[in-house]
Amino acid sequence: MSSTVPDLGDADQLKALLENVASPEQLRELLDAPGVDDEMIEGFVAAAGAEDVLDKVFGLMGEHFVAERAGNDGGVIRWDVTAPGGTLSYGLVVRDGAAIGERGAPDGPKVTLTLSAPTLLRLCAGRLNGVQGFMTGKIKLSGDMMFGAKLPGWFDY
């Protein structure tokens, strides 16, 4: 992966970039490219397809979940992500040593996080501390605050 700003008009290039992101390191490389700001990220998400981008992100969450860090803790997390075109809801179920992300609002979440697509990508890339994001209003949290505070430590960045 190269550290160049993607051509937002080239759908094939955007799809290839999205397909090649398989780790927080690769996501960081994309976010750290010169000129990448929230507006650029929102443009990328819109051009690549918000659902495709978020499907990829939530799929990768499961791959980068570290079960030992969660111990016996678990539950359902709802993520309401503001993306170009509206808010999309995703669920992340942490249970039996695994984390499984899927599109759609889950039933009975223990905690709900509300954030923008750029904030989610930065959080997943390790470029935004979850507590800092909450304290600055970039991440809104409702439900079990203690559970929500533990979440970032359960993933490798």
Explain what you see:
- It is a single chain.
- This protein is α+β, with helices and mostly antiparallel strands.
- The chain has a single domain, classed as Nonspecific Lipid-transfer Protein, Chain A (2-Layer Sandwich), CATH 3.30.1050.10.
- Helix content is 43%, strand content 23%.
- The protein contains eight helices and five strands, in the order αααααββββααβα.
- The chain has helices at 11-20, 24-31, 38-48, 50-63, 67-70, 117-124, 130-135, 145-150, and strands spanning 75-83, 86-95, 98-103, 111-116, 139-143.
- It has a five-stranded mixed β-sheet with strand order 3-2-1-4-5.
- The longest helix has 14 residues, at 50-63.
- It comes from Actinomadura napierensis.
- Pfam families: SCP2 (PF02036).
- This is SCP2 domain-containing protein.
- Residues 74-153 form the SCP2 domain.
CATH domain fold name: Nonspecific Lipid-transfer Protein, Chain A
- Across the major sheet, the strand order is 3-2-1-4-5
Q: Write down the secondary-structure element order.
A: HHHHHEEEEHHEH
Distance between the termini: 18 Å
Please give the CATH architecture: 2-Layer Sandwich
Look at the structure and give the CATH class: Alpha Beta
How many distinct domains? 1
User: What is the helix tally?
Assistant: 8
The largest pleated sheet is described as: 5 strands, mixed
Helix content: 40-55%
**Beta fraction:** 15-25%
Q: How confident overall, as mean pLDDT?
A: 88
Which residue ranges are poorly predicted, with pLDDT under 50 across at least 5 consecutive positions?
none
**Looking at the structure, what is the overall shape?**
globular
Radius of gyration (Å): 15 Å
Secondary-structure-derived class: alpha+beta
Secondary structure: number of strands: 5
At the fourth level of CATH, the homologous superfamily is SCP2 sterol-binding domain
Protein name: SCP2 domain-containing protein
Pfam family, one: SCP2
Domain SCP2: 74-153
Organism: Actinomadura napierensis
